Amino acid sequence: MKYYIKVEKDVKILVEDINFDLGNPIMFVHGWPLNHNMYEYIVEYFASRGHRCIAIDLRGYGNSDKPYTGYDYDRMAMDIKLVIDALKLSDITLVGHSMGGAICLRYMSKFNVDKVSRLCLLSAAAPKWVQSSNWPYGYTVDEVNKLIDSFKSDKPKAIRDTSESFFYKFTSQGILDWFFNMCLMAPLWSTVNSLRALRDEDVFNDLTNIKIPTLILHGVHDTICPYPFAEYMNRTIKNSVLTPLTDGGQGAFYECKYEINKSLEAFIYNYNQ
Asked: Could you give the CA distance from residue 133 to residue 120 in angstroms, rounded to a whole number?
């Protein structure tokens, strides 16, 4: 079932809640510039195994409201908190992809007390998406600024260009169209403001606050969030395990869906309270 949860005046978040009357909840937070439908191959697997699957559209994406402001990590993390509180969830497995992974880390660092029991970071944009004096991985600031300009100039073309670097393996035209249509649902202002957040923010300090079991799944061929991101997260999060996805890039959620499903299922089973 689908419904909306109000997180701010004039801002409601879409929630897709599968098996809402069951336990073992898994909450899915999508990455830039997608929406909750990116998880449909993973949700189908876990829903068929008796899990409650809760997938949200972040503000500005999919069918959630699309305000001009509120795309910083703190505000997005607060949105997650308000959804979890409204649904009175507990013993959650929280899954975040790319930007969604960074937002989940901010949520865990700032707000989580006892609601989330397990964390899964999938191709996460963490600890920092752009290079700096003490971080040599990821895009340069100039590259992100050019990406912003390309979206402001011709968003459909920029999405097509992004899809070329998203997937590592050959992908059918149908999947590329599926990806394109998800990205197209996000208006220019949310797409660009999220890029600014990715450019300007980091979660170095948040990583050190993560104490719960954490599964890191990352494509070794990822050019958008390079694999050293995952290695750093694994070194920094004490109770973490890193599973390399040897046949995937940033689009591993589709390219490596079978490996992801099996790895996440085993992780949940091994760390079930």
From this structure: 28
Contact between 8 and 16 under an 8 Å Cβ cutoff? The reply is no
CATH number for the domain spanning 152: value is 3.40.50.1820
Residues 6+ apart with CB under 8 A from 43: 16, 18, 28, 53, 55
CA 222 to centroid of chain Cα atoms = 15
Q: What is the dihedral of CA 39, 45, 48, 54, to 10 degrees?
A: -30
Range of the domain at 181: 2-270
CA dist list (Å): 81 to 16, 21, 34, 108, 124: 16, 21, 20, 9, 19
Which residues does residue 106 pair with via DSSP β-bridges, in sequence order?
Answer: none
Which pair of tokens denotes residue 82?
């308000």
Asked if residue 273 has pLDDT above 80, the reply is: no
Per-residue model confidence as pLDDT tens digits over 91-147: 999 999 999 999 999 999 999 778 999 999 999 999 999 999 999 999 999 999 999
- Report the C-alpha gap between 140 and 46 in whole angstroms: 37
Say what the alpha-carbon torsion angle 242, 119, 109, 62 is, to the nearest 10 degrees: 110
Contact (Cβ atoms closer than 8 angstroms) between residue 105 and residue 97: no
Are residues 159 and 184 in contact, defined by beta-carbon separation less than 8 angstroms? yes
Task: Give the Cα separation of 184 and 252 in Å (integer).
Answer: 20
| The model scores a pTM over 0.85 | yes
> Domains in the chain: how many in total?
1
